[in-house]
Specification:
Helix content: 40-55%
Low-confidence stretches: none
Number of strands: 8
Mean pLDDT: 85
Radius of gyration: 18 Å
CATH architecture: 3-Layer(aba) Sandwich
Number of helices: 9
Shape: globular
CATH class: Alpha Beta
Largest sheet: 6 strands, parallel
């Protein structure tokens, strides 16, 4: 039985309402472009975090300049919240919490401590609050706040320390296989969330345990008999 479950946030617990095309159906070029944009954004988040979490001598001048620009433009602390009104109705019109998220989180927190490990900007905290997800988590590790990004092993280790957990006591769930693989190398139990079947899995990721719903985490985390069918309450 595991003592903690760490989640990614975007595309794992919630997503945008206009994202109708499943990842599994994207053409290879579309997937490559998506990952390049994701990696660029994650790199900027990490750089911002270094500038804001470390002493100036450790953050380069260009990094500190970028962080100042990100603050001045609102990119770091407002993001899409600057476009939509900061209230729950507006947030739910733009973003959707996946149907299996709340049921899974509610069930898991009876026996596990819950945390987030996510590549994101600081405004994610406000967005999680508007979407009703914030109260479920004891630990929230955001790349732009700590100056580390997935798949750097250090961000997983930092999150584990925040709950006083060893890697062997914890599960990590993400929709990006590189991040799941990195968590496994640290020692966590990795679960790759694939909501639609994929047939183009790279050899490096074929050993990863895939789940198609967050609810599948519950029997794994709580050690229930897999032979007994389970349905969310």
């Amino acid at each position: 039985m595991y003592q903690a479950v760490y989640f990614d946030a975007f595309n794992t617990l919630f997503g945008t309402r206009w994202a109708k095309e499943s990842q599994a159906r994207r053409l290879p070029l579309q997937q490559i472009i998506k990952m390049l944009i994701h990696d660029l954004d994650a790199g900027l988040q990490e750089a911002y975090g270094r500038a804001r979490s470390e002493t100036p001598i450790k953050a380069s001048r260009p990094t500190r300049l970028f962080a100042n620009v990100a603050d001045w433009t609102g990119m770091a602390n407002s993001g899409p919240l600057a476009v939509i009104r900061r209230n729950e109705d507006s947030a739910h019109r733009w973003f959707k919490v996946y149907a299996d998220a709340i049921t899974t989180l509610t069930t898991l927190r009876d026996g596990c401590r819950l945390g987030l490990i996510t590549n994101a900007w600081p405004y994610l905290e406000s967005l999680l609050q508007l979407l009703g997800l914030w109260p479920y988590f004891e630990s929230v590790t955001i790349s732009a706040q700590v100056g580390l990004k997935k798949p750097n092993p250090a961000i997983y280790e930092l999150a584990l320390r925040s709950l006083g957990m060893s890697a062997e006591q914890a599960i990590f769930v993400d929709d990006i296989p590189q991040n799941v693989l990195a968590a496994e190398r640290v020692g966590l139990k990795g679960l790759w969330l694939v909501r639609s079947a994929r047939h183009d899995v790279a050899p490096a990721f074929r050993h990863l345990q895939q789940i198609t719903s967050l609810w599948e985490i519950v029997p794994i985390a709580q050690g229930w008999d897999p032979a007994i069918p389970m349905q969310p309450a």
